[in-house]
Amino acid sequence: MTEPAATRDDASYSKSPDAVRAELGRLRDSIDNIDAAVVHMLAERFKCTQQVGRLKAEHHLPPADPNREARQITRLRELAVNAKLDPAFAEKLLNFIIAEVIRHHEQIADGTDPTPGNGAAGR
Ligand SMILES: O=C(O)C(=O)C[C@]1(C(=O)O)C=C[C@@H](O)C=C1
Q: For the Chorismate mutase domain, which residue ranges apply (predicted)?
């Protein structure tokens, strides 16, 4: 018979319900802080990419730059490995963000950007 993943000898089983609640609360506070930082960092990133979108539109440059994306993905995958984050997840996340940026660039170029001069808020 194989042992269950967690046994009664595990340290977590010796915690009182109050101690478990306290630890969960502490971890969730950190998660909330991290989520807030992610939102703020994304907002700053979109402010930059809105400026890139306007620059590209003014100079008739294409919204997407696949060579730049390939370099970003290579770099981010390396960073992810060093940070012990799944590089496939890092790549998926970057592709997800870039797809949204390209959508904004296209809207700026065709004059349908709903929030001109105002970053990416309100979509
Ligand atoms: O660097 C650019 O040219 C951008 O438009 C920014 C960005 C990005 O979000 O990082 C978005 C689209 C491009 O395909 C590549 C990169």
A: 18-109
End-to-end alpha-carbon separation of the chain, Å?
A: 55
Provide ipTM, 2 decimals. 0.99
Q: CA angle at residue 103 from 97 to 107, to 5 degrees?
A: 145
Q: CA 82 to CA 50: how far, in whole Å?
A: 30
CA distances from 24 to 14, 18, 31 (A): 15, 10, 10
Question: Which of 73, 102, 106 to mutate for ligand 1's pocket (most ligand atoms within 8 Å of CB)?
Answer: 102
Round to whole Å and give the CA distance between 33 and 5. Answer: 30
Domains located in the chain, CATH noted:
16-109 (1.20.59.10)
Task: For a ligand 1 pocket test, name from 65, 97, 103 the mutation site with the most ligand atoms within 8 angstroms of its C-beta.
Answer: 65
